[in-house]
Design goal:
The chain is an all-alpha fold. It has one domain. 71% of the residues lie in helices and 0% in strands. It contains 4 helices and no strands. Helix 1 packs across helix 3. The longest helix is centred in the last third of the chain and has 19 residues. The N and C termini lie far apart (29 Å). The mean pLDDT is 88.
Length: 87
């Protein structure tokens, strides 16, 4: 699985996690960013000293994918509630 696919899978997994229904979009993005950076560092995809240089790019990528996955919803909370009611 390539790195981009790992990021997408992380986002999908955490979008389905409704244990913290009041999590804000900003908190969500930071949580995904941190998990993805952990993955990149552990897989030696980027060296530890260089990850700060790509931090902004990762956040922008997370926000972009997040917006695509939650399109049509006003907030992360609304998205998660809709998923709960759908199931």
């Amino acid at each position: 699985m390539d790195d981009k696919q790992v990021l997408i899978e992380l986002i999908i997994t955490y979008l389905k996690d409704s244990t913290n229904i009041n999590e804000t979009s900003s908190q969500f993005v930071k949580r995904i960013r941190d998990q993805y950076i952990k993955y990149l560092l552990l897989s030696n995809t980027i060296p530890a000293p260089a990850f700060r240089d790509v931090l902004q790019d990762i956040e922008e990528e997370v926000v972009d994918i997040y917006r695509k996955k939650t399109y049509g919803y006003q907030s992360l909370k609304e998205f998660r509630i809709a998923r709960i009611l759908k199931n």
